Amino acid sequence: MRETTPYAISTGIGGVVYEICWYMRGLEQWFTDMLVNPAFCEALLDRTLKFWLDYYTGFMKEIGDIIDVVMIGDDLAGQGGPLFNPDFYRQVVKPRQKKLVQHIKSLTGAKIWYHTCGSCVEFIPELLDNGIDILNPVQITGKGMDPEFLKEVYGKQLVFWGGGIDSQHVLPFADPDEVKKNVRANIEIFKQGGGYVFNNVHNIQAGVPPANIIAMYEAAYQYGFSD
Question: What are the helix (H) ranges across 123-175?
């Protein structure tokens, strides 16, 4: 496969160790479980971890030598900050995430891409310790997610895959010229020294003017290549 494409080959799935628990329990009930029954949470997390360890053991056996990026994710934050107590993450969730990341890395030389929406800045040191190489979607409108701060503090340790435009205010509501200005400003920050992959912050939502989508891609091609 590497001989037939010049592009990076990526694979993976979101909602692994932690997020899949709220799919099963429901978001409100899962957060209640964290408070009133942490032992149950640990038991369920152990089961989800085992599933993904087994899954990636078999998966990487088949494709581990041909891929460049493995995508995983567990949403940890909302617009204003963490979705739950960061101490619970450090004590309960993180050890299991780290075990999964290290297991995947033992099976492939691919980089690990991690998705979490929102203001995840408080978790970045923990994600780096887990062995994460790439952060997505870099929600620059989240609290504390200023592009200059992120690049200055973490740019030598982490690849940013996203953060290309304010997708909440600029992409849906500005004119194409403003879209291009916003894309250029973010790219100029993130691309310095490399370690950046342009991407809109998460998915393009319904109602975004097609002209703005075109403007975003035009600006990315115009300004997105490293000097």
Answer: 124-130, 147-154, 170-173
**Residues 144-194: tens digit of each pLDDT:** 999 999 999 999 999 999 999 999 999 999 999 999 999 999 999 999 999
What is the rounded distance in angstroms from the CA atom of residue 45 to the CA atom of residue 97? 10
This prediction has a pTM of 0.94
For residues 132 and 91, the answer to whether their CB atoms sit within 8 Å is no
CATH tag, 2-223:
3.20.20.210
Q: Which amino acid is at 176?
A: P
Helix H or strand E segment including 197: strand 196-197
Provide the pLDDT for residue 227: 66
Which H or E run includes 188?
Answer: helix 176-190
Helices 147-154 & 176-190 angle (0-180, nearest 10)? 20
